[in-house]
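Q: Trace token order:
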Amino acid sequence: MPLVAVLGSGIIGLKATEALVEAGYNVVVVSKDLPGDPVAASWASPSAGAVIYPTYTAKSTTREFETATFGHYWSLAHTDPSSGAQVIPVTEYFAEPYDPDSQAWYTKVKPYYRHSAPEELPLGIKDAVTVATVAVNPLIYLPYLRRNLEARGTKFSRLTAKSLDQVLRLTGAAVVVNASGHGAKELCNDAACTPVRGQAMWLRDRPRGWNKVLLCQDGGYTYVVPRLGTGGCLLGGVRQEGDEGDAADPALRRDILQRVNHLSGGAFKDVNLETDVDDVVAWRPGRDGGHRLEIQGPDVVHAYGFDGVGFAVSFGVGRRVVELVKQLTGGERARL
């Protein structure tokens, strides 16, 4: 099989690599950052909330990606908890009455779904739903993927790429999959790419017995995400489009904690912001007009611009990448 180079080792790059390897391709992964490296603001995947949850999109292809991805991680959580994937309840709160049609397609996929009663809602919240889904600990899962891929012969190489042609030349690959996230802005001269700054806090010791995800995207971007394999959880957050600041804003710490306590009924009221938390800052790889998933020329497949939903679509996107690579390499003929 032809050699394929995957540029980028975030969740999209790694799941594309996994899908390509399963399809029989030889793959080399090249990236400035590699699984196991220290967390950096410019590399979003290790800091992701990584909850497999719907985006309320009307796009049928994205719904297909999300549905396939949910099934994949649901199975993984049940068969291999060492992956960092866990089944967990998620409650999402809405500042306006909930439109069930916005999520109707997804409720058919979920094994559990419940609409909250009015007396259960925090002040100012008009609606809430709870589903069972999967949350992934990226700091476990990304190295887990790398180990599994290396065991199957995939090579990982550190490279700060200057161009896609450079990647093709240095690796000798027939095709490059560009999963470079926000790096595509310069590599592809893509002005549509825009960073979406996120700031959260890692709480080292979560309240005893706390094992659920809370989300609220109205009037802020608030979430609580426990991490499998730790006693802590991620408290967030914000969405600041176009902001590439990598320093934490102390005022946001207080704002985030206030919002989290409002949703949780004060479950985190004893958190000391000076001693109990570590700041987490990362830039989601946003793109005006949505992600780019397509062929360019005879040897490039683009797969970037998935903003904050990379984990939620990753398995489905990986399968689509294989389809595109097959178009460039001759598909089944490549096996002859």
About this structure: The first strand starts at residue 3 and ends at 7. The mean pLDDT is 93.
